[in-house]
Amino acid sequence: MTLKDKILKKPWPYWVGGIILALLNVLLLFTTGSAWRISTSFLYMGASILEKIGIQASDWYYFNVYGNELNVGENYLSNSTMILAGAMVIGALMAVLLVSEFKFKKIKNRKQWIVALIGGILMGYGTRLSFGCNIGAYFSAIPSFSLHGWVFGAFMFVGAWLGSKILFKYIL
C-alpha cells in the first residue's frame, strides 16, 4: 500500500483529525484574530442578495444591534468569513475528488425534499438565534474555555439523538 493510499483511501483515526482541526483553529485565530465560524457567511450571502435587488439589509435591526463585523473596505461578499467559507467548499470538493467519491445523490421523493427544506430553514433560523452554528458555538467555544460551548454541546447531543429517533420513526 502506497503512502497516498494510506493518506487518501483509509480513514484517519479520530484523534489525528482532532489534532489537525485544533491546530488549524489555533492558526486561524492567530492569523485572523477571529474564531472559526461558518453560518455568518450565509447571513452575508443573503444580505448581499437582498442589497442587489434593492433591499437595504444593513439598516435592519439585527445589523444595528449586533453589527455586521465587517472591517473598513469589506462588503458582504468580500471579507475573511466569506473567503474561509469558500475555501472550505473548495477544499471539501478537492478531498472527495482525490478519493473518487464525488457523486450526485437523487432525492428519493417529495416528502424527503420537503423535510430537508424545512429542516434547513429551522437550522438556519436556530443558528442566527444562537449567534453561531456548531462550529462557532461548539468547536471554537470549548477551546476558548467558554461555558456556552459546553452547554451547546450537551444540547446538541440531546437534539441529535431526539432528531434521529423522530427521523427514523416518521420520515425514513
Instruction: Return Rg in Å.
Output: 19 Å
SSE topology string: HHHHHHHH
- Let me know the largest β-sheet: none
Low-confidence blocks of residues? none
The secondary structure category is mainly alpha
- Rounded mean pLDDT is 82
| SS element count, helices | 8
Helix content: 55-70%
Count the E strands. Answer: 0
Shape: globular
Distance between the termini: 39 Å
Subcellular location: Cell inner membrane
Family: Belongs to the TsuA/YedE (TC 9.B.102) family.
Membrane topology: Multi-pass membrane protein
Keywords: Cell inner membrane, Cell membrane, Membrane, Transmembrane, Transmembrane helix, Transport
Structural summary, described in words:
The protein is an all-alpha fold. The protein has a domain at 106-172. It is built from 8 helices and no strands. The chain has helices at residues 3-8, 14-32, 39-52, 61-66, 80-98, 110-129, 134-139, 147-171.
